[in-house]
Amino acid sequence: MATKTSARRTKAEREKAKKFDRFKTAVPLVLTLLLLGLVYFFVLKPDSPATIFKNAVYNSLENAGQKSWRYDGSFGDQDSDIAAEYNGQHAQNGDQDFNLTITSKQKTFSYSFKRIGSDNYYRVGGIDAIPGIVENIPGLTSPDQATMSLLNSAEGKWLKLSQSQESATKAIVPCTDIGLDFPNSAQLKSLTNDMPIYISAGPFVPNDGSQTRIYEVAIKKDHKSSEYETNLISLVNCIGNLRGDDYRLRNINQKDILAMRASITVDIPTTTVRKVVFKQYSQYFQFNIHDYNKDVNISAPDGSTRFSDFINSLDNESKLDLVKKLGTF
Hints:
Number of strands: 12
CATH architecture: Clam
CATH topology: outer membrane lipoprotein receptor (LolB), chain A
Order of helices and strands: HHEEEEEHHEHHEEHHEEEEHH
């Protein structure tokens, strides 16, 4: 009898032990799930794709948050034999530089710009490429004789202009008087609350192993432009007005809009825009931005020539042509 009672107690104890083991297993499992939930909610921030995209645009354009950056890209028209590459950087103190090359008919035109403090520096090269570029871009008109004379004389030289001489730059390089800096806080809020584009597909995970997401975007219909968009449109219109009559030019129609393909790549850890890609028929444009708030140091070019000294070095006929075009400087 004692043996039977002992056996029953042993069985009860075994059942109790099993329940306790299950409890010990369940506790860390529940805690793990709870911790994962907290991490997901407070760290990973599971925003919708639209919210992440909106925040990335906002963060990338916020002047208070982005003090320095570097960028590069390309654009062109495969059917028109136009291929361009560019790069630049912006330092925390406001200094900046920009470099552009445009190749057509196996000849390359180059343009470089630096802003150091209150002084601007310009350099051009490959002036012999301009006729081919003008010929291959529909509606583009060739610079007048005075401008071409100035460009030929200035080729390969860094010219230094102070802020008081910016009127000369504006006369030689049209549309530079239209400022397009970062939007102020009110403009940025208005822009991101009602953006001119919407997410048409995505986000997609790239195959390069990076922590980025690719959003395909399209232009909204019947969108009312914000103040900052209006400034951008003014610059686009100014450039467009430089074009002359050309049988190759036509008005944009709905078919053209539907043919546009654009994507924006967002860096998830920093929630900033890293790449913009646009393609329409044979035309393409790519913009890459990186090194947000990194150390960017820009120095003045060696051997620069003051613009006034450069003008004084020209022959009298060239000086007269420039005075007619630029006025006094």
